[in-house]
Amino acid sequence: MTVRFGLIGCGFISKRHVKAIADCSMASLEAVSDLKEERMADAIADYKRAAGDEKDVIPYTDYTEMLSNQDIDVIVITVISSLHAKMAMEALNANKHVILEKPMALSIKEADAINELSTARKKRVMVCHQLRFLPLLAKMKEVIADGKIGKPYYAIASIRINRSKEYYESAPWRGTWKHDGGMLLNQGIHLIDLMQWFLGSAEKVSGEILQKNMTKETEDAALGIVTFENGAKGVIEANVISQPANIGYALSVFGEKGTLSVEGPSLSRVSRWHAEGSELDIQELEAYSRSFDEQLAMYENLIESISHESSEPLISGVEGKKAMEIIFALYESSVTGQPVHLPMNDFSTLAMLKEKRD
């Protein structure tokens, strides 16, 4: 079985998608779409070089024309955040499966609309939280689920990175609530997804944000406390003002009988692994995770889900909404000064615009 892909958006993040499609024996790239022809040409050249295949890949400057191509099974969306939901719903209405870069949407209503349409059309949606596939993090999930650290008490997600003034000025949509959606929603969402994947459903969030960089609208730092249904607590601390460069990422889970803590750019380094009955060769698992292609694994998981109609992908639209909703709750709490209970009925990042609150 070969699943045929079309790509919308040929910017920087698309390169990993192009490589994953090229490396996947069950996938082929049929078409790409971008407003800039030179970026489409680069994406096609990258695919042909990686796949060792000279087959024609069709370029479309109008992505809606690509959606009508009956030779495409899955649409991959890697454009700016504010277009994710619109394009995902258009793809679903064209009877395509969807791979959707994070965040899946900038509002609760948009995320719900994607999930409802996915069900109605019987089409898969995969949200790009690919770190779940890393062997080290998958093992961490297994150890916690098997009770080897006992009852989880709390977790800490730490994001300490640097995004310069030039980073935001290089693309006018970056750092805007309307088009980008916030630092935590873009740079912090992977760790928050993992935290809730490890600890289960969240029921309450309190948070505060700090905004000092006047070249953008969105927050520079975010602090949050998440209460989970099982009684565990989650602590979120994130910033993009670590000077002069990234410090890094870390995620720790503390339980009654154990502690698991990982860190590093892709969370592939163990700083603490103490779990009852979990004897591992940590160095071997770390090395395996560093060499593992989680992007390829995500594509393989989606293809498996498509070929077995009864199975959902690991990060369906329903799963993808969970981390997004925790972040939305933190944002709302930062405005109201009150805890926010989940599920949320409605929220949009537009609500964070100062002129809308005054």
Description of the molecule:
With 358 residues, this protein is of the alpha/beta class. Helix content is 37%, strand content 23%. It has 13 helices and 14 strands. The strands form two sheets. It has an eight-stranded mixed beta sheet with strand order 13-12-11-7-10-9-8-14. Helix 6 packs parallel to helix 9 (189-199). The radius of gyration is 20 Å and the shape is globular. The N and C termini lie far apart (55 Å).
The count of DSSP E runs of length 2 or more, i.e. the number of strands, is: 14
Give the biggest beta sheet.
Answer: 8 strands, mixed
Global outline: globular
Q: Roughly what is the average pLDDT, rounded to an integer? A: 95
Order of helices and strands: EHEHEHEHEHEHEHHHEEEEEEHHHEH
Distance from first to last alpha carbon: 55 Å
Radius of gyration (CA) equals: 20 Å
Q: Uncertain runs with pLDDT below 50, 5 residues or more?
A: none
State the strand order across the main sheet.
Answer: 13-12-11-7-10-9-8-14
Structural class, by secondary structure, is: alpha/beta
- The total count of helices amounts to 13
**Beta strand %:** 15-25%
Helix content class: 25-40%
